[in-house]
Amino acid sequence: MKIFISYRRAEDNKSFIVGFIHEKLAEVFGKENVFRDTYDITPGTAWKERLEHEVNSCGVMLVIIGPDWVNLAYPNGEKRLFDPLDVTRWEIETGLRRSRGENIALIPVLVTGAVFPQKDELPDALQELIKVQATTLRNFPDFEADMDKLIQDIRKTKRFREDDIQKNKEYEPKTVYIEEGNFWMGSFPGAGIPSFETPQHEVFLPSFRIGKYPVTNIEFEAYIQQTGISAPAQLGWDGQRVCAGKEDLPVTGVNWLEAMAYCQWLSEETGREYSLPNEAQWEKACRGGNKTFFPWGDTFDAGRCNQGRLELAGVGAYPAQSEFGCFDFVGNVRQWTISLWGEKWIAPDPAYDYPWKDDRRNDVNASRQIRRVVRGSSFRNDPNSSRCSARSGQAPDDPGLPDARHGFRIVMKT
């Protein structure tokens, strides 16, 4: 999920523009999420292996093009871009290949008055670059405005979903930005698919931020300690404190009312607007924009979740489950949403059938006799329950069964 900055060192010596770009991106997205060779490859490091790793694992590649980028040549007059062993050419070739096969974002960035190269100025291996939309970074005083636009473009790319805001409080959960747009919700009819999960249909959602992980014990403990309320017995804590060694487990045994109270407290503490996600937000973040059966694909993968184990796993113990970089949607703990289900357990009320709409089904002030939608699956549930579209209804005051207590993740309004 890193941003890789590809550039010519010779051009960097003429201006500090690459340094400014790196500094600004590191400030917004975090130092660990931005790679620049002269900054991140320390003396004594096997630079070639490190460079290959970064080029082949980044989610966004910026190709910095200055005025001399095309014409830089060796002493014999051969242009560097036409040398198959040229490092910059190899970086861009790899980025173009990965943009086709792995859907990474490759963004040409024109700096210090450069113009986009003509077709005959590029070797055959880089001809595809002509088809890619470039952006321009003007010199100061326009540089800051252009950088802000580039940052927004990066945020909108399909692969970059790392945390990019500073916490206002130490105990504030990490969130991931999900851009506005359409996604496919629900399932096609089939064996083991309840009718209330069908049909699969397209839903538009505004942008939002969602918890990178379910809320953890240690995050929920801050709420308990600062408000002075009694920790529910279902949490399984040592009185008002989390049991040692369980700080990074998702908090479980929380009913809907308690989860909403936590969101209200977090909003007041941070000055940001937090709530539980509606079920469309939850499913979009779970799917990563795909139409697959499970968050990671159409085949169940026991290595991607905690399903079938004997106890809860800490958040982040398994790989991210969707391309948005979120963890633990399925196979560890079931999670509350704000969406209404209905009064009966077996199926949702007709008013809350699909197609999904942003209507009264998301009323946080509805009667407490109406069940709320719970999403995800616990480590005790069978693999089929790990479908992206799996949903059920639970009473707002129900913390869940002893072996499958409810947890939650938060959503933040952007």
What this model shows, in words?
The chain has 414 residues and is an alpha/beta fold. The chain folds into two domains: 154 residues, Toll/interleukin-1 receptor homology (TIR) domain (Rossmann fold, 3-Layer(aba) Sandwich); 239 residues, paralog of FGE (formylglycine-generating enzyme) (Alpha-Beta Complex), CATH 3.90.1580.10. 23% of the residues lie in helices and 17% in strands. Strands 2-1-3-4-5 form a five-stranded parallel sheet, sandwiched between helices. It has a five-stranded mixed sheet with strand order 13-12-11-15-14. β3, α5 and β4 form a beta-alpha-beta unit. About 1% of the residues have low confidence.
Number of helices: 9
Name of the CATH architecture of the largest domain: Alpha-Beta Complex
Q: Which runs of at least 5 residues are low in confidence (pLDDT < 50)? A: 159-163
Q: Please give the domain count.
A: 2
Instruction: Report the portion of residues in β strands.
Output: 15-25%
Quote the CATH topology of the largest domain.
Answer: paralog of FGE (formylglycine-generating enzyme)
> Could you report the average pLDDT, rounded to the nearest whole number?
90
Biggest beta sheet summary: 5 strands, parallel
CATH class term of the largest domain: Alpha Beta
Assigned CATH superfamily of the largest domain: paralog of FGE (formylglycine-generating enzyme)
Task: List how many beta strands DSSP finds.
Answer: 16
Main structural class: alpha/beta
Could you spell the SSE succession in H and E letters?
EHHEHHEHEEHEEEEHHEHEEEEEE
Distance between the termini: 21 Å
Strand order of the largest sheet: 2-1-3-4-5
Assembly state:
single chain
Shape: elongated
